[in-house]
Design goal:
20 strands, elongated, alpha+beta, 3 domains, 24 helices, 984 residues, binds adenosine-5'-triphosphate, nine-stranded mixed β-sheet, Kinesin
């Protein structure tokens, strides 16, 4: 008994939830709640109860033969009530015995049920239903439906292997070992069947309360599970047992007096059974207290059937009547029980049919299941076979593929070998053929050579005389040329001697001029001192004048004295005016002297000067050329430079490091600013105010800094304008008034374009322009005119801007000029951009010439002057070397080539002819023709001009060749000596 239920043999987990209201199997409470019947059953199994007497209704009192006394014996007895034999307790003993048997069965069932409960989990639904049941339990009368439901619930846990003892309705015990099938499921139809069955049961019977039966059995009704699990199928035997008459309370109908008596009485029935405590195994009497409303129902227990009116011992008849009455009631109950039994048996048969149907269904399902399982197995094996086949097929395929690949590789190698053999064969054939042809050719050549030799020999023989003559002539020519050469050499030598003498003369002239210059400088200083003295004298005279005026006023009253004073003052004033005019004349003379001296200095410096400037390395530029400036730090500026050629290897593999020395009028290193370069050419520009024509030409390859030096910040154009303005202002004091006009042109493809005009009307050259000029725009032709008499060069249809004097005298004049210059440069740049859309890189492929004309006049001296300053930005010189240019580029290159070459020619010509203009090839290019009057020559009118060539060099080693050609060009120009410049 102490073994845990889970270890019991017959215990199997049901899979159902443990009803919440059922006690826990291991708990003490459970044991206490175990019904008496359970205990009896257990006890019965441990200590078998003596079987009930056969052929006796269990529970009935002993036979009358044993207990009954004769009436005469009884009549004399006065039996105390306690000793009175108990009245026949048909029902009570029947119930008792029946109870014992059914309790035994139910106790085992209960035990079983508890085992099931341990295995099953409690469910909330069960709890709810248990709650419902709890309520019902409190109700004295339960409907049959309810009780049947309860029984069904309990039967759910009934096991087919369980042996049960049943109490039959007829009161006989029967032990039946039943094995019920747990496989059948219970469906809703079952409930409906039960309900139908219930409906068939008479109402009176259905009203029998089972509550007391449960209480008596100490069984807590288990809540009805909702699920219709097959294992919950109520056993019909169980149902039969549950509704056996031994448990069914019988409607007690008695007299109103009795009913009243019982209604107030609490019936205490000591159980005739002794229970073994589940704890200590001792027998303890158990009393079941039942409070009944006998007006409704009451168990027919011994006590309940015992009449309360005790008949007198002698009242045999009365007692018999009572017995008869009880017996009648008992019989009626049996009859009702019989009916119930029949009805239940009918239900049983219905259930059985249903069970069979379900069993059949189960069998069918099992068969179907087996079939399906077999199908699945078959499918699995098929799949396995297919997979194996597939793998095999794949392996076969791979093997086949490898075979095919091997086969193809073999075939390819065969074909390759075959082809190689064929190629070898063909090569050999070709070499054989070539050798054959070579031999044939050699033979043919030798044959041809022989023929030629023969022919030459024949011809030589025929023309021998002719050849002799030619040779003779040639020898004579040779002798003549030698003679001329000797002459020339002698001439050259005498010329060299002359040159040396000339140089010596010039050096002497320079020395004397220097002395003169120094003397003039001293004169200028003394004159300046005199001017200052004159100024102070003037001031003194002014003071004197004012004093005299005051005196005059003073003397007005004194006529005589006043007139005398006045005469004196007039004399003094006249003296002052005369002195002032004398001073002005001196100043003008000094100015003329300064101009002469300046001209002399410029002449001494040369009418053509060459400056060289090398620009600094720009960001991202590497590998500079090696250039040295040996006299960089001399006081009057460096004039020499040494340029190293890139290292080359000689034929013998020796390193060759060439270097070239150059000397110019000035050499500016890369660190030189524009301002410094301008200071170097300041005296030239200043001479324009004095009426000289000056040209400053920027020469060099593209990107060497020509434009930067000419138009950049502090470049020559803006600085020259500023210098000229200040000079004009200075000369204004000396009576000189100036008008300054500016023009800006470009020479592109030997055509002149006005940079201040409309770019769309530009003449792009003889063959160009027509195709690019917009319709309706007339081609503007600018012709150059050179007036031999005046020495003036003019270009027709050119726009010009007056930079001085300002049109409005009230405006700030300097601002006006600088604004006008900026505007002018902007217009030129814009026009060049417009033109650049027609042909790219316009600026580096055209010459731009900024022309300033200064016309001055001094009323006092009736002098006038006109000087022209040409600031020229030449096209990139490297174009000269370019070859292979085609189309438009070829034309451009040709034009640049032509103009720069003629520039060199003109300068060389000016140098060699010494002022004889007639043969100077100015007209060879538009550039030289335009600059004719300002390229360092002396015009027919005697007016001379000065030229400054600004050579710009790139600092890069890569541009060494271009730099070298620029330096050679510059050296050539620098070596040119042009006669003294003359001003008209
Ligand atoms: N002395 C200098 N200092 C600083 N930058 C210079 C100097 N000279 C030239 N550069 C720069 O070098 C670049 C090329 O100069 P620039 O355009 O004047 O050359 P260029 O010979 O006139 O070219 P092109 O005539 O082909 O237009 C410019 O970016 C300019 O600013």
């Amino acid at each position: 008994m102490d073994r845990p239920l889970s270890q019991l043999e017959n215990v199997r987990p049901s899979g159902l939830k443990q009803p919440s209201r059922l006690p826990h199997i291991n708990g003490r409470a459970h044991l206490l709640e175990t019904s008496q019947s359970d205990l009896n059953a257990r006890y019965g199994s441990a200590m078998p109860m003596p079987p009930p007497p056969k052929h006796k209704i269990p529970g009935l009192p002993e036979s009358a033969s044993k207990q009954r006394k004769t009436l005469a014996e009884r009549a004399g007895e006065t039996l105390p009530r306690s000793n009175m034999p108990p009245p026949p307790r048909m029902n009570g003993s029947l119930r008792s015995n029946g109870h014992t048997r059914s309790a035994s069965a139910i106790s085992t069932f209960s035990q079983r049920q508890q085992q099931q409960r341990v295995a099953s989990a409690a469910s909330e639904e069960d709890s709810e239903e248990a709650g419902v049941m709890g309520k019902r339990k409190g109700t004295p009368v339960l409907s049959f439906n309810s009780s049947l439901q309860l029984r069904k619930t309990r039967s759910t846990h009934y096991d087919s292997t369980y042996n049960t003892s049943r109490v039959r309705s007829d009161g006989t015990d029967s032990s039946t070992s039943e094995r019920s099938s747990a496989s059948s499921s219970r469906h809703a139809s079952e409930d409906s069947t039960s309900s139908e069955q219930d409906r068939k049961i008479p109402k009176t019977q259905r009203n029998i309360s089972l509550a007391n039966a449960f209480a008596d059995l100490s069984l807590t009704p288990a809540p009805a599970p909702r699920s219709q699990h097959p294992r919950h199928t109520p056993s019909l035997d169980r149902i039969r047992e549950e509704i056996s008459p031994s448990k069914i309370p019988v409607k007690y109908s008695c007299t109103p007096s009795l009913r009243h008596a019982h209604s107030t009485q609490s019936l205490q029935t000591p159980s005739p059974l002794k229970h073994k405590s589940s704890v200590n195994g001792m027998y303890t009497p158990r009393t079941t207290t039942q409070h009944k409303d006998v007006s409704q129902s009451v168990f027919l227990t011994k006590d309940s059937l015992t009449p309360h009116r005790v008949p007198a011992a002698w009242d045999t008849k009365g007692r018999l009547e009572d017995m008869e009455m009880f017996y009648g009631q008992l019989r009626a109950q049996f009859a009702e029980a019989g009916d119930s039994k029949r009805i239940l048996e009918e239900s049983l048969s219905v259930y059985k049919t249903r069970v069979q149907e379900l069993s059949q269904l189960e069998r069918e399902l099992s068969t179907a299941n087996r079939k399906l399982t077999a199908d699945v197995e078959r499918a699995r094996s098929d799949l396995h076979t297919t997979t194996t086949d597939l793998r095999q097929a794949r392996r076969d395929h791979e093997r086949d593929m490898q075979d095919v690949e091997r086969k193809y590789e073999r075939e390819i190698s065969d074909v390759t070998q075959k082809l190689e053999k064929e190629v070898d064969q063909l090569t050999q054939d070709r070499e054989r053929d070539a050798e054959k042809w070579r031999k044939e050719m050699e033979e043919a050549r030798q044959k041809w050579q022989r023929q030629k030799d023969d022919e030459a020999f024949d011809m030589g023989m025929a023309h021998a005389e002719e050849v002799d003559e030619v040779k003779k002539k040639f020898e004579e020519e040779k002798v003549e040329l030698r003679r001329q050469l000797d002459e020339l050499r002698n001439q050259g030598e005498s010329r060299a001697t002359e040159s040396v003498e000339e140089v010596q003369e010039l050096r002497n002239a320079i020395a004397s001029l220097r002395n003169q210059l120094e003397a003039t400088g001293a004169t200028v200083t003394s004159l300046r001192a005199r001017i200052a003295a004159e100024d102070s004298r003037n001031a003194a005279l002014e003071q004197e004048k004012s004093a005299l005026v005051g005196k005059m006023h003073f003397l007005e009253g004194n006529q005589e004295a006043q007139s005398q004073e006045f005469t004196t003052m007039r004399e003094q004033l006249q003296d002052a005016i005369t002195s002032k005019e004398g001073t002005l004349v001196t100043l003008r003379k000094e100015e003329m002297l300064r101009r002469k001296l300046n001209a002399t200095i410029l002449e001494l410096r040369g009418n053509i000067r060459v400056f060289v400037r090398i620009r600094p390395l720009l960001a991202g530029e590497e590998e500079p050329a090696r250039v040295e400036f040996p006299d960089e730090s001399s006081l009057d500026g460096g004039k020499e430079m040494v340029m190293h050629a890139p290292t080359t290897l000689s034929a013998t593999g020796k390193e060759r490091n060439e270097k070239h020395n150059y000397g110019f009028d000035r050499v500016f290193g890369p660190a030189t600013a524009n301002k410094e370069v301008f200071q170097g050419c300041q005296d030239l520009i200043q001479s324009v105010v004095d009426g000289y024509n000056v040209s400053i030409l920027s020469y060099g390859q593209t990107g060497s800094g020509k434009t930067f030096g000419m138009s950049g910040p502090d470049g020559i154009i803006p600085s020259a304008i500023a210098l000229l303005l200040s000079e004009m202002a200075r000369l204004k004091e000396k009576g000189w008034e100036y008008v300054v006009e500016a023009s800006f042109v470009e020479v592109y493809n030997e055509a002149i374009n006005d940079l201040l005009g409309d770019a769309k009307t530009w003449d792009e050259g003889d063959d160009l322009g027509a195709s690019v000029r917009p319709a309706g725009k007339r081609r503007e032709r600018h012709e150059i005119h050179h007036d031999a008499l005046t020495g003036k060069t003019t270009v027709n249809n050119l726009a010009s801007v007056t930079l001085w004097p300002p049109p409005d005298s009230s405006s700030v004049q300097t601002d006006y000029t600088s604004r006008a210059v900026t505007q002018l440069l902007d217009t030129a740049a814009k026009n060049r951009r417009v033109a650049a859309t027609k042909s790219n890189e316009r600026s580096s492929r055209s010459h731009s010439i900024f022309m300033l004309t200064l016309r001055g006049r001094c009323e006092a001296t009736d002098e006038s002057s006109e000087g022209v300053l040409n600031l020229v930005d030449l096209a990139g010189s490297e174009r000269l070397k370019q070859s292979g240019a085609a189309g438009e580029r070829a034309k451009e290159t040709a034009a640049i080539n032509k103009s720069l070459a003629s520039l060199g020619d003109v300068i060389a010509s000016l140098g060699s002819k010494k002022g004889d203009e007639s043969h100077v090839p100015y007209r060879n290019s538009k550039l030289t023709y335009l600059l004719q009057s300002s390229l360092g020559g002396t015009a027919a009118n005697g007016k001379s001009s000065r030229t400054l060539m600004l050579l710009h060099l790139s600092p890069l080693q890569a541009h060494w060749q271009e730099s070298r050609s620029s330096l050679l060009f510059g050296s050539k120009v620098h070596g040119t000596h042009i006669g003294a410049a003359k001003k008209r």
